[in-house]
Amino acid sequence: MMDNYGTPSLVLERGEGAHVWDADGNRYVDLLTGLAVNALGHAHPAIVEAVSTQIAKLGHTGNLYVNEPALKLAERLLDIAGEPGKVFFCNSGAEANEAALKMARLTGRTKVVSTIGGFHGRTMGALTLTGQEPKRAPFAPLVPGVSHIPFGDVAALEAAIDDDTAAFIVEPIQGEQGVMVPPAGYLQEARRITAEHGALFILDEVQTGIGRLGTWFAFQQAGIVPDVMTLAKGIGGGLPLGATIGFGAAAELFKPGHHGTTYGGNPVCCAAGLAVLDTIASEGLLEHVSSVGKEIAAGVEALHHPAISGVRGAGLLLGITLREAVSAKAAAAAQKAGYLINPIQPDVLRLAPPLVLEESDAQAFVAALPTFFEETP
Ligand SMILES: *Cc1c(COP(=O)(O)O)cnc(C)c1O
């Protein structure tokens, strides 16, 4: 394999619920879940059943034909979003954002505004939207017309968006930047300003969507509706699945021939997606995410540990902020102790556990956390 990921620290072999085992038989509590992907944890019976049944029935159709799992999933997504709209299925977060960017071009305008620190994927269009210079610089020149403004800054938004702006894209919480939470009211102001100028408001819920913050989608907590929402990660419960959803007039931007992807709406992936949504609803996981997330945050705060300066985020997307740049060492110590956590910034540890994380695992993690900062001889 190419060296683009550097040297991985583990070979994982199997998983069950929030636990994974490496090739040497060591067990870990997986507080990262393949980067916020395995919403129901590993080997959830509902996903195993849905995928096994579907692959035995019809594994792929291509997009000249349609299949029932894709239709059902589109309906379910609009149902839980609570808004009329239309769905385009793809395979990843980057691809969902590529579709959103192409939709923005179909407004007839070319200016797109994104945020500094935002992460929207690694393909050329998505990378252009991504506001992290080290990831972009080696690949310039990127797609023209995209600018980046400070995240959470309403004045910058007012200044950047005008009647020539096609779209503003933002994450409700910047996940890859270290779980950055914008000031209260930011998404509402973004909705107002984009509407005033007739620009699309694209909300990238690839990481925050599908229950991770304790509601189906983050926009529902903000009490707004974006024009376009992008999804991936948790939606497939571990299978590659992404979606771009247009609400209202934005649902009509794509016409036949404008866009496509061979695996989009793959029945096996969509069957997995349906199992994810059904299980979140039937097992009351939205409430569970809120309560376990609060418990972890309160537990970490209550440690009053000298290495820890705070906790931010919502639901089960949490950033533990550190007083010094020791996250890599702490994550390595955590791994040795049987916990997979993510040193997303030198001074931030990210948690994105499965939505099914049990309280006992959450409590054990909080209790073990101080030991990750101890100097080992
Ligand atoms: C991970 C992520 C992406 C990219 O998703 P891929 O499936 O890796 O292409 C895009 N946006 C956000 C907010 C993400 O967290």
From TrEMBL:
Residue numbers carrying N6-(pyridoxal phosphate)lysine: K233
Record flagged with keyword Amino-acid biosynthesis: yes
Cofactor(s) listed: pyridoxal 5'-phosphate
Compartments (UniProt record): Cytoplasm
Alphabetized PROSITE patterns for the sequence: AA_TRANSFER_CLASS_3
Segments passing through the bilayer: none
Reaction it catalyzes: N(2)-acetyl-L-ornithine + 2-oxoglutarate = N-acetyl-L-glutamate 5-semialdehyde + L-glutamate
Matches recorded under Pfam families: Aminotran_3 (PF00202)
Keyword Amino-acid biosynthesis carried by entry: yes
Binding site for pyridoxal 5'-phosphate: G93, A94, F119, D204, E205, V206, Q207, T262
Binding site for N(2)-acetyl-L-ornithine: R122, T261
Entries under HAMAP family matching the protein: ArgD_aminotrans_3
Family: Belongs to the class-III pyridoxal-phosphate-dependent aminotransferase family. ArgD subfamily.
Name of this chain's protein: Acetylornithine aminotransferase
Species of provenance: Lentzea albidocapillata
